[in-house]
Amino acid sequence: MTWLKDVLGTEKAIIAMCHLMALPGDPYFDSEKGMDYVVEMARKDLKALQDGGVDAVMFSNEFSLPYLTEVKTETVAAMARIVGELKSDIEIPFGVNVLWDAKKSLDLAAATGALFVREIFTGVYASDFGLWNTNVGETVRHQQRIGAGHVKLLFNIVPEAAKYVADRDIESVAKSTVFNNRPDALCVSGLTAGAQTDSQILKRVKESVPETVVLANTGVRRENLVEQLSIADGAVVGTAFKVDGKFENHVDQARVKAFMDDVKAFRQR
After folding, report:
1. What PANTHER family does this protein's entry cite (predicted)?
2. How many domains in the chain?
3. What is the mean pLDDT of residues 53-78?
4. Can you give the residue range of the structural domain that contains 187?
């Protein structure tokens, strides 16, 4: 049994993404509609996800495109406001993800009471955002300094839109990440949000670190959930829950319910 049962309430857990609209300072922030509109859209998506039956939810600044690797204070402040205003509506375990800044994600978790964060904690990458470096030793020390030691760390080891600078196979990455950093979970992704995680890569990661929670991080849909959940311990799902399955749309509760009905049937096998 993994920590998923204790923290999220079930094995083969589905963590749903609540994608926040562009925030103050972001290129696509709608200053006319303002933050009140962003909060209300997040509330609408949260309700659709919860009513659809997901196991947990993760709030992320998904539309802060293009992303920063050192996120500005105004972004974290805006996210804290949103989660704070929604706190009384949150009925399931929740996490946060400040793209792509591990320390800021932990700051937000400490401020809001989030139970987990997903981030790029390790590695050096050539990415769409430039040369992308990390400092996991400093990050986990920061986690302890701010009293967030209980927050589960979900390590994304196949970053979207990026590739390791060194030529390392995925088994080596998984094994060394687990040995050196003791992550609570490893997340395996496709190229972008909504892109299917390669089942063979997922299988190779799980087989190389069988005692560690491994999550399919992108592209799980009704059509492939049996295949993916047969390998992974759970999944992070965003785009599949959107209207017409499109990344830029808001959540469709009917799609969420249909997906979760299939997941529950899979769990009972």
Report:
1. SGC REGION PROTEIN SGCQ-RELATED, ZGC:162297
2. 1
3. 97
4. 3-267
